[in-house]
Design brief:
11 strands; mainly beta; about 170 residues; 1 helix; elongated; 7-stranded antiparallel β-sheet; Immunoglobulin-like
């Protein structure tokens, strides 16, 4: 019983010391500037034949290329993902912006039990210092890794995109 009282007293002393220290730290203005992020276009690698495998590369401008034995087929809908980034309100000034794209190997497209890895996500603009009051468009490209004789199908998936004001 004596030990419990000692422990309780010790914790009370620590808290008693911490509170005055926290009160001594000067307060800074804090605000949250909200942004809206809406998907204007999905990432679409288009149609292709896997053959001996390789990659399908989409750059942020929507240009599609390939490596290895992949054969690209006519795909008018293929292209980069596009997101509209806007301020929810004018907020309290211009703040730095950090955009986080998925790491390599974190995103897979699936069709039934078959899958393909999406790697090397890239964006345009490469850096975004602020979001103008009128908003801006963020374009995202990536590379699809295609296995030799990849099973045909309609592959789909999602990827995370995080935009933070600092």
């Amino acid at each position: 019983m004596l030990v419990r009282r000692y422990r309780s007293f010790r914790y009370a002393c620590i808290v008693g010391i911490a509170i005055p220290v926290l009160l001594a730290i000067p307060a800074r203005d804090a605000f949250a500037q909200q942004i809206t992020l809406s998907n204007a276009r999905g990432l679409d690698f288009g149609r292709f034949v896997a053959s001996s495998g390789g990659t399908v590369v989409l750059n942020p401008a929507g240009l599609r290329s390939r490596t290895g034995g992949v054969v690209l087929l006519n795909s008018p809908g293929a292209g980069q993902a596009a997101f509209n980034v806007a301020k929810f309100s004018n907020g309290n000034g211009n703040k730095a912006i950090i955009i986080s794209l998925p790491s390599n190997g974190a995103t897979r497209l699936t069709s039934g039990t078959n899958s393909m890895n999406v790697v090397t996500f890239v964006r345009s603009p490469g850096t975004l210092q602020t979001v103008p009051n009128s908003g801006t468009t963020l374009s995202v490209g990536a590379t699809l890794t295609v296995a030799p004789n990849q099973a045909p199908g309609s592959y789909s998936g999602t990827f995370p995109l995080t935009v933070n004001f600092q």
